[in-house]
Amino acid sequence: MKFDTPATPNPIDRLRVVGKPHDRVEGRLKTTGAATYAYEHHSVPSDPAYGYVVGAAIPKGRIKSIDIARAKAAQGVIAVISHENAGPLAKGEFYTQRFLAGPEVDHYHQVAALVVAETFEQARSAASLVRIDYLKSDGSFDLEAQKRTAPVAKQGPYGGPTETAVGDFAGAFAASAVKLDETYTTPDQAHAMMEPHATMAIWEGDKLTCWTSIQQMNWGTRDLAKTLGIPKENVRLISPYIGGGFGGKGTAQSDLVMAALGARAARRPVKLALQRPLMFNNLIHRPATIQRIQIGANLDGKIIAIGHESLSGNLRGGRTEPTTLSTRALYAGANRMTRVRLAVLDLAEGNAMRAPGEAPGMMALEIAMDEMAEKLEMDPVRLRILNDTQVDPEKPERPFSSRRFVECLETGAGQFGWSNRNATPGKVRDGRWFVGMGMAAAIRGAPISKSGARVRLDSGGVVTVETDMTDIGTGSYTIVAQTAAEMMGVSIDKVVAKLGDSTFPETPGSGGQQGAPSVTAGVYAACAKLREAVAQKLGFNSVDLVFADGEVRSGNRAVPLGAAAQSGDIIVEDFMEYGDLAKRFAQQTFGAHFAEVAVDSFTGEIRVRRMLAVCAAGRILNPKTARSQVIGGMTMGIGAALMEEMVVDTRFGFFVNHDLAGYEVPVHADVPHLDVIFIDELDPTMSPLQAKGLGELGLTGVAAAVANAIYNATGVRVREYPVTLDKFLAALPDVT
Amino acid sequence: MANPVDSEVSRRGVLVGGTATAMIGILPSGQVQAQSARSDAARQDFGVSFEVNGKPYSLQLDTRTTLLDALREHIHLTGSKKGCDHGQCGACTVIINGVRINSCLTLAVMHQDDRITTIEGLGTPEQLHPMQAAFVKHDGYQCGYCTPGQICSAVAVLDEIKAGIPSHVSADLTSPPALTNIEMRERMSGNICRCGAYSNIAEAIAEAAGSKT
Q1: Count of other CB atoms within 10 angstroms of residue A624
Q2: Active-site residue, selected from the candidate residues A144, A605, A696, A720
Q3: Which residue in A123, A432, A486, A734 could disulfide with A18, CB within 3.0 to 4.6 Å?
Q4: Which of residues 274-313 of A touch B (CB under 8 A)?
């Protein structure tokens, strides 16, 4: 099915199942421990051996020699794999990292060896017996040191152009009545999902099956096959449950590659989970940025010039952090400039983490807007409303498909009690606490991609949906089931959703917040085809058919849906593909975040007291799971504002705090009750469901809202994330 | 310029620990190099008997096996999760003799005759424990990986409060702690949820506890 004209009325509009806050269909499995993750499939492969990874102990250089003799001789050891016996390995297409060091070492904790043994304890013990001598060479680890020398990045397949120019930015900025020119920094951040990257690999002849934890099955099969130099058709990946990803499990990484190599060497199934302390320096992460923002406005607050320059670093061949994406689309202004530069760093690869580009970009831009509002002596909400635009500011002939940004701002301000905010910072006290309010905008692109599904109807009226879509906690299982139920006119308990198997029809998987709109459109297409097949089987004229309450009706005739499959299951497959609507319309999601914080006047301790997000993201397919996506983003945004930072040791070239004790993420005590409001919106340019993703929207802007609230509370502006007390304690007013 | 790493590492070792064997200590954890004279540890098995979810088990285990790995890899109760294996995340939380514990931080052979309750022992998909039902109702989870640990912790937290055990945020150490939102959030803070379901988990626990806060 092709979607190339805006949506017209269709069966989804009935909203009997879609749009309802259904509990997750897999909820009972997850809450009882019955959902099985990659490392846990005891029933399938018998007698797996265990892998344990040895990470490189230098950030850059060569493995001079590797002595595996003692490890090999240790009790229970079946195989030890290193570059000396692994055979040739290529790289994947999306990540630039090599999955196995040797002889060159590209970054700290790159896999240097894998030990495979009968038990986990034996593998771990033997791993400590692998002796590696390195030849260390100089590397680059300091982003700041390349601030002036790093070149403008080449445009890659993602992230948009690395340089944009509209009008005369320099001239307009110089002529502006009110100007801001500030630099903001964001640190390296870790996905730190709860389930470590884990894989169980089995070879049967030249066919490889892996139970793994990966967000995009199609990329995973492509990249694993390419790395191993085998046909893609010989690889099957299975990921029914994924313990979080946030972009960190986009496609094949070292666990998948090393488990496959281990299983080949051991000639039996091998499972491995990357040890938590290896993950931070071995896997991808969100790279640090240094961002300069310039905004020029008239005295009335109208922006006439907006510029955003950004620097991030990466391994050679790696991508940029495209922080300027939001600046290009969020506010009006005739004269514009963005520029993204890229330094070479010999740290672990920087790559996609939840809202890549937008999340760190908005951390900077939305503090800048707060500062601008102060300079203009204008309310920050009012400044944003004043600079709203209904057309792509770079291409005024291209309208936004839907943009209810102003309603997000106004609704949020009203609900949050924004009018009670004292615009003069440091003036509101609650006992020993300074109290402040802050807000920020949210924006994130609304991509959608070709997505397929297979649906089967049996004689009991049960509809089974198969797609290679994954559920990383996002609620995919539930919205897939809701979509099929709505289309086929059955209750949700008559639908079985099967996900996360690369033999199922292809979807873009979970990434870039395009999963929900894409997969549901694919299910729509397959169900539309199934409806036709059912009509034909039952001898109905398909034009006036109604599928409802488990029946197929036409005029006075009503037949149970399952009757169509009386003589055998009906199985159909289809996909949804797209025309040029995404070119004709700027498709984005919008929101506004509000935060109230308290800062201890004695100690500088920051407590988030309450937060509200207002989001406009097309049709909300399931308000319960959608809200969870947003509060998850808000929680991650609290982390970005207050604590998350992988600290680079620029002498030795690695992230120092590489475990869950050192890399702090928000815990229960840090997070108050979070409120979310969805603006009623349909976007007919997206798909027949008129929905957009929102898993990343919920994160963009959050950290800035918190940082702005801290400023409003204390009067001390911090432009270097995270906003930790060492950065403002000395500047707090004297304790009285 | 290339230089042999050994001299570099030795210098660091001396700086940090003052002895050659400080090597292991100064390398980032989880990455153990074999530069020190470490003996090849041979497996030693040991018998241990305990009860899991009301069922007796007698196991011959490598003494290095954690309780978590005994549950997951030997008894095949994989509901208890391994998130970090270092006691930092709480995903492996189980209840032993009524008290919650990070099962990755305790060796299985230390639990002779103990009564262990895992997530599988609280309820089943067909018959949920009230805490499990509350998590489903309030969407107190997303990816589900921390969830068994959160639920085991939450069940034990309510018992701790009932037993009058104070916490860091209890205003008064002598009077019984109350079932407040902040009291429960403090006590649950050893269980990380990276998906960020905390707000919903707090509501689920409050409902299971029968409190309104």
Answers
A1: 18
A2: A696
A3: A486
A4: 275-278, 281
DSSP codes joined into one string, A182-212: EEEEE-BB----SSPPEEEEEEETTEEEEEE
Percent of chain A with pLDDT over 70: 100
pLDDT at B181 over 60: yes
Look up the CATH architecture of domain A2-35+448-580. 2-Layer Sandwich (3.30)
3-state secondary structure of A99: coil
Query: Which pLDDT band, with edges at 50, 70 and 90, does A253 fall under?
Result: very high
* Sequence ranges of chain A with CATH classification 3.30.365.10: 2-35+448-580, 398-445+587-731
Scored b (16 or more CB within 10 A) or e, A707-727 reads: bbbbbbbbbbbbbebbbbbeb
Out of A119, A124, A671, name the one closest to residue B198 (CB).
A671
Q: What is the mean pLDDT of residues B124-135?
A: 98
- Cβ pair B86:A27 closer than 8 A: no
Question: Is A422's pLDDT higher than 80?
Answer: yes
Q: What is the C-alpha separation between B115 and B110, in angstroms, rounded?
A: 12
- Cα A33 to the center of its chain, rounded Å: 25
pLDDT in tens, A493-516: 999 999 999 999 999 999 999 999
- Do the Cβ atoms of A75 and B42 come within 8 Å? yes
For B62-116, the pLDDT digits (tens) are 999 999 999 999 999 999 999 999 999 999 999 999 999 999 999 999 999 999 9
Would you say residue B20 has pLDDT above 80?
A: no
Rounded Cα distance between A542 and A593, Å, is 47
pLDDT (0 to 100) of residue B10: 37
What are the residues facing A305 on neighbouring strands? A296, A335
What is the token pair recorded at B136?
A: 């489903």
Name all domains of chain B by residue range, CATH numbers in brackets: 45-122 (3.10.20.30), 130-209 (1.10.150.120)
> Which residues on chain A are in Cβ contact (under 8 Å) with B73?
119-120
pLDDT in tens, A20-60: 999 999 999 999 999 999 999 987 767 899 999 999 999 99
A696 catalytic, yes or no?
Answer: yes
> In this predicted structure, what is the pLDDT of residue A541?
78
Residue A393 structure tokens? 């500011």
Coil, strand or helix at A498 = strand
**d(Cα A365, Cα B60) in Å, to the nearest integer?**
60
Contact A23 B31 (CB under 8 A): no
Percent of chain A with pLDDT over 90: 97
Chain-chain contact of A28 with B188 (C-beta, under 8 angstroms): no
Residues 6+ apart with CB under 8 A from A300: A386
- In this complex, do B146 and A665 lie within 8 Å of one another by their Cβ atoms? no
- pLDDT value at position B212? 41
Q: Are A241 and A497 in contact (CB under 8 A)?
A: no
The one-character DSSP state at B70 is: I
What span, in angstroms and rounded, lies between the C-alpha atoms of A490 and A461? 8
- Of A628, A256, A136, B121, give the one whose Cα is nearest residue B131: B121
Q: Which CATH class is domain A398-445+587-731?
A: alpha beta
Cα gap A402→A141, rounded to integer Å: 42
What token pair was written down for B46?
A: 């040991």
Q: Find, among A215, A187, A175, the residue nearest to A305 by Cα.
A: A175
Contacts of B131 (CB under 8 A, 6+ apart): B122, B151, B154, B155, B204, B205, B208
Quote the pLDDT of residue A576.
Answer: 98
Q: How many degrees, rounded to 5, is the angle at CA A81 between CA A78 and CA A86?
A: 130
Tokens 């106004």 map to which residue?
A: A410
Residue of B nearest to A672 (CA): B199
Please report the pLDDT score of residue B40 as a whole number.
53
Partners of residue B76 in chain A, C-beta under 8 Å: 42
Query: Looking at residues A665-682, what average pLDDT do you find?
Result: 98
Cα separation, A457 vs A561, in Å, equals 8
Position of tokens 């070709």?
A450
